[in-house]
Write a structure and sequence with these properties.
CATH architecture of the largest domain: Orthogonal Bundle
Strand content: 5-15%
Number of strands: 12
CATH class of the largest domain: Mainly Alpha
Largest sheet: 5 strands, antiparallel
Distance between the termini: 123 Å
Helix content: 55-70%
Shape: extended
Number of helices: 27
Structural class: alpha+beta
Strand order of the largest sheet: 4-3-2-1-5
Amino acid sequence: MMRALFAAFLSCLIAMPAVAQGLQALLQAEAEEVLSPGRRTVGPVLGGLVDAAPDGLESFLEAWRDKRVWRRADGMFFVADEAEDDRLDLIDVETGAPAGQGAEDEFEQSKPNGGVRREIASALVAFQLSSPDRARRVAALDAVARDMEAEQLAPLMASIDGEEDGALRARKARLANMLVASHGETTQARIEAIARLGGETDLQARAVLNRILTVEEGVAVALPEGENIARVLVPGEDMSVTDAYAQLVDAGLAQARIGRDDIVAALVENMEGDRVGGVARAELDDEYMRRRAYEALAARGVVPPFVSEIEMGRAVASHAFYTVYDEADAEVTAAAEAALAESESAVAISQGIDLGLDALSLASIFFLAAIGLAITFGVMGVINMAHGEFIMMGAYTGYVVQQIVPDYTLSILIALPLAFAVTFAAGVAMERLVIRWLYHRPLETLLATFGISIALQQIAKNVFGTQARPLTSPGWLDGAWVVNDVIAISYIRIAIFVLALVFLGLTLLILNRTRLGLEVRAVTQNPGMAASMGIDPDRINMLTFGLGSGIAGIAGVAIGLYAKVTSEMGADYIVQSFMTVVVGGVGNVWGTLAGATLIGGMQKGIEWLNPSNTLAAQTYMILFIILFIQFRPRGIVAPKGRAAGD
C-alpha cells in the first residue's frame, strides 16, 4: 500500500511543470552572450527570454538596448546609471528596486552594437504589443510601423485577439495586413493583402505598395530569362543614347568614352622628351593637335581608342535596357500595380475634394468680408474704401475682449455682438458726418473714404502698435477635421464657413422678412416712390450703412481667428471684397455669394496650378475678372432697381 502511494506521488512530481526561472538566473545562464552580444547569435537568447517572460523583462530589454546593463565580478547582472566618483547607481534587474552603489571598476558593461540593439528593439516590441499599458502598446505599434520587418508579423498577429481597445485592434489588423503584403508566406496571401490596400489614400499603405514595386535598372545583350521585368527601356525615347552608353560602361559592357581630361593625362603620361605621338610639346596647346597625338598613341595600342558616335550607337543598339522588380514574384507585382493604380485614383479624387474644400473655405472668408460692402455699395451706391478698416476694427474689438475675458469661448461669444455694435456705431457716425453730404458724387466719396481708411489705420497703430496681435480661438477649434491623409480642413475654417452660412441666412431674413428689409428694398428700387409712401430715405441709408459696417465688424472677428490682426489687415480684403461684389452683381446677396465662390475657387485653382507663386494667382484672377466684366458687366446676378440704373 505504501509503495503504491509513493509511486503515485512520484508520478505527480514528474508530471508537474518545472519551476519558472527568474530573470537573473536566465541572464547568468547566457552570461557571455548578454555581456558581449553578436548580431547573429543574440536571437536565441532573446527568444528564450521572451518565451520565459520573467518579471522585469521589459525594463531589462529597454536598459540593455540603451547600454545600461552591467555585470559584477561575481556574475550578477544589474541595470546601472553612472554616478559621481566613478561609481554606479545599481538597480535590481527583476524588481527594479535600487540596489545600492558599486565601484565602476568592479563591473563590466554590456555594449550591444547597432545591429544587436535593433534585434533587442524588435524583441521589446513583441513583448510590448501585449503590455497592459496602452501607451506602451501604442509605442510598440509605432515601432512596427517604422520598421515593417518580417519578424514583427508573428507577434503582431498573436496580439490582435487579446486586444481590448477597438482602435488599437483595428490598427494592429491594418499593420498586420501590410506586413502580410510585404512578407507573407504564400503568394495568394500576399495578393489578398495587397488587394485590401487598393484604393487606400494612406501614405503608409502606398509606401508598402511602392516598396513592393521598387526596381533596378539593368542592361544585357538580351533580356534575362527568369527575371521579373518591369519595363523595357528604349534608348532615344525612355533615355538618351549617351545615358544608355554610360550604363553600358558602368556594367563593363563597353569602353568608356575619352574626355578632354583623359586626353591630357594620357599625353602627359606618354611624353617622350619634347614629343608625344609625333607631335611636339609646343604644338599641344591646340586641341586638334592634342587629339592627333592621342590618335597616334591609340594606333600604337598605348591608350584606348576614341569611341565614335557611330560606334556608340551600335553598342547601344546591340544591348537590351530594362528595369527589373526587386520582388521576384510577378503575380505579386501585378497585384501591387493594380492596387497602386486604385490608390492613385483615390488620391486624385481626394485631392480634388480637398481643393474644393479649400476653395469653399476661402470663398466663405471672401463672402464674410464682402457681404457688408454688398449692402452699402449695392443699396446706396457708395464706394466705401474704409470697409476694410471696419473689418480691422472688429478684429481689434475681439482682441480687447480677450484681454478682459480670458475664457476664449466666452470672449468670442461676447466679441461677436460687441464688434457689430462698435462698427455699426462707427458706420452710422461715418454716414452722418461724411457720406450723407457726398451722395451721387462717387469720386469725392471714394477720396473721402480712402482718407478715412488711412486715418483709421493710423489710429489703430497709435493704440495697438505695429505688432500683430493674437486673436486666439477656443480650444475646441484647435486641430483639423482629417478625413484621410489627403483631405483635411481646420476647425477654424469650418467655423468661418458655418458663420458665413449663418450670416447669409440672417441677411436674407432681414432683407426679405423684416420691415427694415422691406424699406431698404423700396429705397433701392425707387427712392422717390418710397419717400412718397412715408419712408425716410436718409434714415434708411443711415441704417443700411450701419448694418453693412456692423457685418464687416463681425467678419473681422472671424477673420482675426484665422489671419493676423494688424492695422493693415483690412487692406488685404478690400480688393477681394470689391471684386466679389462686382463679379457677383452689385446689391444682391446671392450675387455676392456667387462672386465669392467664383473668386475663391479661381484663386485656389490657380494656386494649385502654380503653387510657388501666390502673387501670380491673384494677378491671373484680376485679369480674368477684367475679361469677365467685359462680357457680363452687371455680374453673375444682375442688379435691379436704382443700382441697375446706375
